[in-house]
Design goal:
With 459 residues, the protein is mainly α. It is built from 20 helices and six strands. 63% of the residues lie in helices and 5% in strands. The protein is elongated.
Length: 459
């Protein structure tokens, strides 16, 4: 295909160089956004009198026809085209003749691609937000079912204090709500129109950038024409938000893998989200959670690739910036794929409250409450802490738990211990007493669920 930029040189481009230069294989996915931007640009050219009404009508009808044919499959993107912008313009000119060549008046591929990319990522961000919401809703539903289900809370992966399963799941809901806020913020800052910045310096034509911005749903035009075409901080910011989201998904995936193991057996995943072994017939592997965990590094790589690509570029546009799209597209695809699988995985797992409670009954998780028992009777906390540590050591030596250690053994460490120590260190009491805001008591968990549902409705 003849290059639309031919003129300064008519020499044929080396085939390998042509393939290296082309972006059609990945930017063709932006055909809807490219045509939308061109429709708005043509509308503005007509309203400002830059193009006659007849040309504008022909251009817009031609563009709509191309879109319809691409959507139906009647037209395929030509892989020999340099990029999606060149393909659409060449196809338009083929269909409507000279009027098609006038579409690019007061526009450059530099502001065109920047506009297309913002439109595309805005749409993908909305999709990812909805899928993040679906995962948060699945977690909230599970939390509501298990507001009273006790399991061990861990620090350093060591049993620490008893919490409820619902409380644990709400921690991930909190993370996802912040992720949604980051994506919303990045999308808001991205929602400025580069169209009309042209190559870098603006144009001598009497264009109306406010009009094209409004037609395309942007809040405002980009304030500076150099910045409009030469920065991709919105790609980096979205990739950063998606990287943090993937970090949270990876942590959740890791816990799913632990919980679904026979060693924990806190949950069983639905068969629809597991695979088997080619040699061991008893296996039920949580491959989807493992893949989500593994793909986190891929999104981190997309972020680092974008930042590294941008770090040394002089203003304005440089061809290096063609690398923005593959990274951003890959990050969006990966995040969306992980969310698409994780939300129903969470919604359909089967929890095993009895196994969770059995795990919580070991590990001396009432130790803090034992120390608090003494503290409430006037013993300084550090002294109470030391006494309780000695009691735990005594339990280990005897091979018993805090709940089964005889009262006389308690009293050998402090005469302040009475029969009520057993009620004070019971799992249910340890959980129920933690009524502080954000705590693990069932009533506190239910309040958190209510508050998070309200936040999620507005996220």
């Amino acid at each position: 295909m003849a290059k639309l930029w031919a003129g300064r040189t008519d020499a044929a481009l080396n085939q390998a160089a042509d393939d290296f230069n082309a972006s059609i294989r990945f930017d063709s996915r932006m055909y809807r956004q490219d045509i939308a931007g061109s429709l708005a640009h043509a509308e503005m050219l007509g309203k400002t009198g830059i193009l006659p009404a007849g040309d504008v009508a022909a251009i817009q009808n031609g563009l709509r026809g191309i879109l319809a044919d691409l959507e139906s499959g009647a037209l395929a993107v030509d892989p020999s085209s340099e990029d999606i912008h060149m393909f659409v313009e060449a196809e338009l000119t083929r269909r409507i003749g000279e009027a098609g060549k006038r579409l690019h008046t007061a526009r450059s591929r530099n502001d065109q691609v920047a506009t297309d990319l913002r439109l595309y990522l805005r749409e993908r961000t909305e999709t990812i937000l909805e899928k993040t919401r679906a995962l948060a809703e699945a977690l909230l539903e599970q939390a509501a079912q298990h507001a009273e289900t006790i399991l061990p809370g861990y620090t350093h992966l060591q049993r620490a204090q008893p919490v409820t399963f619902g409380h644990h799941l709400l921690a991930y809901c909190s993370m996802l709500l912040r992720d949604m806020g980051r994506m919303r913020g990045a999308a808001k800052r991205m929602n400025q129109s580069p169209l009309g910045a042209c190559a870098l310096a603006g144009t001598t034509y009497p264009i109306d950038r406010q009009m094209t911005a409004a037609l395309l749903g942007f809040d405002v035009p980009c304030a500076n024409s150099l910045d409009a075409v030469s920065d991709r901080d919105f790609c980096a910011e979205l990739c950063a938000a998606w990287s943090i989201l993937m970090m949270h998904l990876s942590r959740l995936s890791e816990e799913i893998l632990l919980w679904s193991s026979w060693e924990f057996h806190f949950i069983t995943l639905d068969d629809a989200f597991t695979t088997g072994s080619s040699i061991m017939p008893q296996k039920k592997n949580s491959d989807m959670a493992e893949l989500a965990r593994g793909k986190t590094g891929r999104v981190y790589g997309d972020l680092m690739g974008t930042l590294t690509m941008l770090k040394g570029l002089p203003l304005a546009y440089d061809k290096d910036m063609q690398e923005d799209k593959e990274a951003a597209f890959d990050a969006a695809d990966t995040v969306e794929a992980c969310l698409t699988v994780l939300a129903p995985m969470v919604a359909t797992w089967t929890a095993h409250p009895a196994a969770m409670r059995r795990a919580a009954e070991n590990g001396f998780m009432g130790a803090t409450d034992c120390a608090d028992y003494l503290t409430r009777q006037g013993v300084p906390f550090r002294t109470a802490y030391k006494i309780t540590g000695q009691i735990v050591r005594e339990c280990i030596e005897r091979g018993v738990t805090l709940e089964t250690l005889p009262l006389e053994a308690y009293q050998s460490f402090s005469p302040l211990f009475g029969e009520d120590i057993y009620a004070a260190i019971s799992l249910d009491a340890c959980v129920a007493r933690r009524t502080s805001e954000g705590g693990t008591a069932p009533d506190s968990v239910r309040r958190q669920i209510k508050a998070m549902k309200e936040l999620l409705e507005n996220a």
